[in-house]
Amino acid sequence: MSASNRKLKQQLTRALAAPPQSRTAAVPVLAINMNFIAFSHYLGDVAGQVFVFFILTVAASETAIGLGILVILFRKIHSVRADDMDSLKG
C-alpha cells in the first residue's frame, strides 16, 4: 500500500469513528419504531408500520446526505478532520 493510500485510509478511519454521543440518538428512535410496529400489530392497523417505513427512509437519506458532504469536503480540501474546516470560512 502506498503512503498516500495509507494516509487516506487513516483519515477516513478517524472520520468514520464517530463518538458515542452521535450513535446514542439512534437507539431511542429504534425503540420508538419497535413500539410503533408492536402496537400496529396488536391493533391490527398498518398505519404504525407505514410510519416506521417513513422514519427509516428519512434516517437513511440523512445518512446519505452526510456522507455526500464528507466526500465533497474531502475532494475539496483533501481532509475530513474538523480542524481543517477553518479554510471554509467566508
Walk me through the structure:
The protein is an all-alpha fold and 90 residues long. It is 74% helix and 0% strand. It has four helices and no strands. Helix 3 packs antiparallel against helix 4 (47-77). It starts with a helix and ends in a 13-residue tail after the last helix. The mean pLDDT is 80.
List the main descriptive attributes of the protein structure presented here.
90 residues, mainly alpha, 4 helices, 74% helix, elongated
What's this entry about, in short?
This protein has helices at 3-16, 20-23, 26-43, 47-77. It has 90 residues and is mostly helical.
Topology of helices and strands:
Elements (H helix, E strand, L loop, with lengths): L2 H14 L3 H4 L2 H18 L3 H31 L13
Uncertain runs: none
Helix content: over 70%
Average of the residue pLDDT scores: 80
What is the overall silhouette? Answer: elongated
- SSE succession: HHHH
Strand content: under 5%
* Count of discrete alpha- or pi-helical segments spanning 4 or more residues: 4
